[in-house]
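Hello forum,

I keep getting stuck at the same step: I have a sequence, I want structure tokens, and every attempt I make locally crashes halfway through. Rather than fight my setup again tonight, could one of you with a working pipeline run this one for me? It's a single chain of 228 residues.
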Amino acid sequence: MSEPQPIAMAEEPSTGQTVETAEEEYGRNYELLMQALEVAVRKGANKWTAKDFKGCFPTISSSSEERSRVFDEIWARTAANMREMVMKQAQQLLEHYNTGPALLQFHHTIQKAREAKKEDEVNGWPERLRADAWRPDLTPQALMAAHNLPQYDAVFERLRTEYLELTKESQTLYEEVKRKQDLVKQLEQEIGTASQQLEDTVQALETHPTDEMHLWMEQVHTTVPDKS
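Reply #2:
Ran it on my machine without issues. Output:
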């Protein structure tokens, strides 16, 4: 039986930016980038052929034509899913790094430079060719800021949320500490009162006529008749 040829994957709509809308939104450069990306992903997904897949299960896949066809279908779906997943992750990276807007601004800058050069040549000023006029919003610093500021905003919001949570937790802990401080203060007052009472008792005992009490107790003991 002849070996099955790799099955071409059915074209599936991308989940993110499509090639058809790329040029309309971000220009020709972004369209070429998306086309190259899709070609690379398609070739990468097809590099693992149905023959390679069947080679992992040679006994089952070669037992009948029906099973061979089932393995072809499984391979085709797997390759399509692989392509879709890689394209989705690649487009997420392109969006994360603002690739489309950056390429569009780059394209506009090149166009303006070409127009300026053409204008100088038409006006016959070859010795006074104007240097490229970089607008402030097209500098690398501006592009970097356009990418970083949303990241800073996200970090600021996260830190703000954490700060509010920590503030609330700190307030709760402060109230707990304050309650314990009040309890300790109350205990100190009670201990002070008890200490004062103890000191008063000691002073009263020190001023008590101990010798006279001992003499009286001896007299009472000797005057009590023996009832035995």
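Helices lie at 19-26, 28-47, 50-55, 58-61, 65-96, 99-122, 140-206, 210-223. If your local run keeps crashing, start a new thread with the error log.
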